User: Fold this.
Amino acid sequence: MDDDVVQRVFQEGGRDYYQQPSTSSSSSSSILQSLPLHVSFDHGYYLLVKSIQELREKKEGLVTVGIGGPSGSGKTSLAEKVASVIGCNFVSMENYRVGVDDGNDLDSIDFDTLAQNLQDLINGKDTMTPVFDFQEKRRVGSKAIKSFSSGVVIVDGTYALHARLRSLLDIRVAVVGGVHFSLLSKVQYDIGDSCSLDYLIDSIFPLFRKHIEPDLHHAQIRINNSFVSSFREPIYKLKCRSEQSPNGDPSASIFHGKEAMMDNFIEMYLRPPSASEEARINDWIKVRQSGIRYYLSLGDQRIVDRHYIIRPKAEFEVGRMTLGGLLALGYNVVVSYKRASTSVSNGNVSVSLETIDSLGETYMVLRGTNRKTVGAEASRMAICGPWITKSYLEMILETKGVPRINTPPLTSNASSTSNQEQLIAAPKPLRITPNLVNRLEDLSQPWTRSPTKSKMEPVLATWHFISSDPPLAEGSVIDPSFRDSLHLAPMPDSYDLDRGLLLAVQAIQAVLENKGLPVIVGIGGPSGSGKTSLARKMANIVGCEVISLESYYKSEQVKDFKYDEFSSLDLRLLSKNIDDIRNFRRTKVPIFDLETGTRSGFKELEVSEDCGVVIFEGVYALHPDIRNSLDLWIAVVGGVHSHLISRVQRDKSRVGCFMSQNEVMTTVFPMFQQHIEPHLVHAHLKIRNDFDPVLSPESSLFVLKSNKQVAYQEILRILDPAKICSSVQNFIDIYFRLPGIPANGQLAESDCIRVRICEGRFALLIREPIREGNFIIQPKVDFDISICTVAGLLNLGTYRASASAHEVPAIFKYKAVAYIEASAYIYQDGKILVEVDHIQDVSNPYLQIKGVDKEAVAAAGSTLKLDGSYTTKSYLQIIQERLPVLERSSSGIHTQQAARLQELVQLIQSQCNIVMEKQGSSSASESSPSREASPLDGIIEDMQSRIKRLERWHTINTVLWTFFMSAFVGYSLYQRKHK
Assistant:
């Protein structure tokens, strides 16, 4: 399908600048020649960035991009994330309004001015784009855009792919789904099966079918955004009544010099057509009107934890015709009130005074994205309540005498027991076949209706409890031990990360309400599935403690690469800690130093009202020996774990050796299938982590690399002295060439999977970084894998197709082809990390500045005067360029290092065999004596001795430098006094 897609990219109404055949000798295909029919949001972002970069190389002048789609689909989010990487000009169609009729009205867009602005930029002319003020409902000015301020312009808007603009666009992107589709799901649930999806679209989005959907079929990159705004990035609120002082706004005296923002809103709540007067307000739809704009959120979604009101970022803009469509379908406006707000902000926390006309009172509200920061600001302001956790809607309903029915009724537990043993498996990877349907008319359902969701998502299920004891007779006294017999009934289905996070928090609150303190949670799943991320997000919401099972490693077994062995955990100490927590005793939780491979100390933990929930997360958190002591069991699958499966299956399918998921699991993840997956079946909550951290812009790390010599004293000056810490690491990078890649020519980084060995641990990187300007933009997904996974990659060439094993030719194998050994000095302060790498066989060290804030990384590089010395080459490229011409080959290493690499590969395979043999006899593995030191132990000891030598040299260097500076300062003072 490559030729067809290329024609679609450059000829279907777009700007045809590049029609010459490719002359690149790279073995990898062009990004623009491999665009699938529709992709996820994360994958679409990655494809768009790479496509823009490729098109800039193949054509002169400006690259124009249009991103279109329905309201709430995620267009603006995509444009902003791409702009943060590319550094391009961003033009919103919202500023080209000439009328105020409706947010989606085609006649309200000034296409002539927008087309002229784009044409000027394409012709190399500066242009003035309009600025529209939605409060004043008119155009208030203009903004200048330089023609060559950047080589890319992105146009974002509902009609960005309209026929009047398509001829001016190089790349056309369509985004569907998101909260747009979630609204349809919500409405369909509320009104039942009485109408079809097409009728809903005609009712709620009447302009979508007529003016938007036809344009989206002309897109080259088509994205289905299944993300639903949730509690992944919640907003924390503290609310209390405000006593208005005679001097005016009390918040203004707190943030001196900050300009106060004033706004007026009209907020309406729509009740579903089939709901009664006492329907749960969580099922209502909230509409907020600000000027001529309408914002919608799906119900009164929030979590109340102690004094905090925690809300998701779930509000998106809709048109007035969407509101009219909801009313036409039978929704009723049951509550409407005006809210006047005056707010100031210090960057982290905003303080607002909000007046509700229906209540006749003013309230002070503190908002922020960090729970601890909001609480600290309230303490600094000496505000101690009394706090209000009710919403304005609830308070208004109480004044009207409407009972508060915000808790859903208990559901029957008949279905939960039958489905308790329902299997949970890692999501099957998407495999695009060569005969992919290219014609839209051949699809059974238009892709613009989010075909990835075959049925409407139901409302969130509710938790209920089951008792292992017989029910008590009416009027009998409740035995305190009855609370211990209450257990959560497992959810029969699995959920995505967004819904799973909300259900997990609600489960904790349900256990607290029914059983009291403490609540002990276990989160289990394979490596890289997202356990730690989920645990931290839960802790941010609930305000609890998170303990990793990695803290319970036994020091004597860690250096034997037994990270994925259950016997490597100190179960006796873990059992004691859980028992102490259960019985409200103060306990000491271990602290494990992964760099040294030893237990470095303990920290005290005590159950209290402020710390009544403890989360244990780890690969074996749901093992029977652990989970029986826990209150809530959560299983997480997917994530980078599933991404690696997809990558392996894709690489094998390229050469006609597609392997089933079961074969991949038994080859690459033997520990998972045998010792982890069986425990996940019993979880109360099963979560499918469809989030793709490998391709997602949310996990981007910006890196600047230079070989300029910089004194470490200069490095220390750009870091926060109160938070600075340093370390020394030795690492070995092994590059595995993908199956089907010919062993001729220079080896490219995109042809490899990289495995890093550092301090006895294996980390995997499975995506080539994005290179933009001086920056290397790489994902933060160096996730730990077991030695058996590494050995599984090496052994994928031989797999069992039937009863006998068949050897696959070498071209079909993952083959270790490159070997890099280096040591690194690392300095960091929590925001910026500076790494000085000394690479073997490279004379000069390389300095890397890393951080999630692009501007902060750039500022650090400028302070160190690195401008003009940056490189985006990988260490693999650098070493290959330094090789003698006769030794340059696909191996990418010196000839004398090939034997070293082969030895290391053999040791990995043999070590994995030892681990698997011990896992085969689990009872013997826990009591087996220490085995003799293997050659791999010698490698680790050699690396550790190198680190000690480097640390000694670092100490000596520091002492000498301090002595020199003291002498210099003393001499300067002496000279000044003498003069």
